[in-house]
Amino acid sequence: MKKVMIKNAVLRKDMLLDMKKPKVAIIMLIFNALLSLVAFPFLASTSFMAEWYDYGVFGLSYRTLITMFMVLVWLEAVAICFLTPALTAGCVSIEKERQTMDVLLTTRMSTWQIIKGKYFSSIMLVIMLIISGLPIMSLVYIFGGINLWQMFLMTLVLIATTMYLASFGVFFSALVKNTIVSVILTYIFLGVMLSMTMTIAFGGASIMILINEYLEEVHQIHLNLHGDYFFFILWWNPLVTIFDSTAQIFGYGFDSSSVFNGMQDFGGDLFQSMSDKNLILRGWSFISVAVQLATSYLLLRWSARLIKPVKKKPKKFVSNFRGVQRTGAQVAEKTEEKQQEEMQQEQPAEQEEMQQEMQSEMNATED
User: Fold this and answer.
1) CB-side neighbour CA atoms (13 Å) of 80
2) Distance, CA of 328 to CA of 323 (rounded, Å)
3) CA dist., res. 297 & res. 292, Å (int)
4) DSSP state for residue 2 in the 8-state scheme
5) Residue 4, burial from CB neighbour count under 10 angstroms (0-12, 13-18, 19+)
6) Alpha carbons within 13 A on the beta-carbon side of 355
């Protein structure tokens, strides 16, 4: 079999060096051990109910293992939110600290290729963690309730969330020179972003409701202002994306009669101008993933511009050259002025000499 060659030199170097370190295997072992500890109570309770099912004591429900799957998904989501900034926020700044960034910039690789290599090499560990947890999550197949396509979709949503959060780490890593500062800024910005999107969405909608009530009660004006557009900012919140995708695929609830199916169930309530059959609400997860990936692309492009060497114009040389021209013109003017002054000084001296000669000749004739 032919070996798969990675064209990006930065990505190839980082994968060859970093992926062979023992800490990668240790992190994967700890991560999967944690998933196993969380999944064990669900499996034990399901086995217990299955043992007594023949006696009619307990009834079996596929919702037990689906709940286990959703808990594992949220556990991976929390791990992604904490691990991704730490792994990506130093990918570029560490090159600046080691003073090797100038060496990378002198190669034939463009700044965009350097950023892409650093970006994918930094998220490779998180993606490996997500994939390594699939065997434990696939235990839900024991009693069914989930198919392979649904598991594949949830895996893609988790990988897209990783790529989205990683782009902020790469951006701040390219923006500052210190790795610690970059990590702190990334965590602070992500925390503010997650909280502010929720605040703006629900706060803006609440303000619109208060304005409607005030206009109707005081001025008897029925404008029917909707705050639906405030909720569209939640497209940039990856936790809402995971919530909606899990709700649409599996639903939140203990029985089929009271299952919550995500953002589409908010149609008519929070989204007053949209029904539960609205295509935007039904495709909320797909739109959100597309918006987040587009944002990631723009941030990476911006990061490439931040590390791009700035071509400075030779202002000093131009100014000096202009200065020389100016001084030359000034010297020429000064020489002309001196010549005129000398000529003016020479003329009275010649006149005096001529007068003295004429007086001497007149004295000689008189004698």
Assistant:
1) 29
2) 8
3) 9
4) P
5) exposed
6) 6
pTM: 0.77
3-state secondary structure 60-72: CCCHHHHHHHHHH
Reported as a single tens digit per residue, the pLDDT across 320-335 is: 444 444 444 555 555 6
CA angle 70, 75, 76 (to 5 degrees): 100
Of 106, 87, 108, nearest in space to 9 by CA? 108
Q: Contact 325/137 with Cβ under 8 angstroms?
A: no
Decide if 242 contacts 159 (C-beta within 8 A). Answer: no
Length reported for the chain:
367
Question: Which residue type occupies 156?
Answer: L
Give me the phi and psi of 260, to 5 degrees please: -95, 125
Q: pLDDT, tens digit, for every residue of 97-106?
A: 888 888 888 8
Sign of the four-CA dihedral 270, 276, 279, 284 = positive
Q: What is the structure's pLDDT at 9?
A: 79
Residue 103 burial (10 A CB sphere; 0-12, 13-18, 19+): exposed
Rg over alpha carbons for the chain, rounded to the nearest Å, is: 38
Residues 6 or more apart from 193 whose CB is under 8 A from it? 236, 237
Long-range CB contacts (within 8 A, 24+) of 151-158: 153/245, 153/249, 154/73, 154/245, 154/246, 154/249, 155/130, 155/131, 156/289, 157/241, 157/242, 157/245, 157/285, 157/289, 158/73, 158/76, 158/77, 158/80, 158/130, 158/242
Tell me what the mean pLDDT of segment 32-59 comes to.
70
Tokens of 197: 């999107």
Write the secondary structure of 15-65 as one string of H (helix), E (strand) and C (coil): HHHHCCCHHHHHHHHHHHHHHHHHHHHHHHHHHHHHHCCCCCCCCCCCHHH
Phi-psi bin for 313: left (phi > 0), alpha (psi -120 to 50), beta?
A: beta
Burial of 233 (0-12, 13-18, 19+ CB in 10 A): middle
What does DSSP assign to residue 228? G
Neighbours of 60 (CB within 10 A): 12
What number of CA atoms fall less than 13 Å from residue 107's CA on the CB side?
Answer: 13
Please state the φ and ψ torsions of residue 233, each to the nearest 5 degrees.
Answer: -70, -15
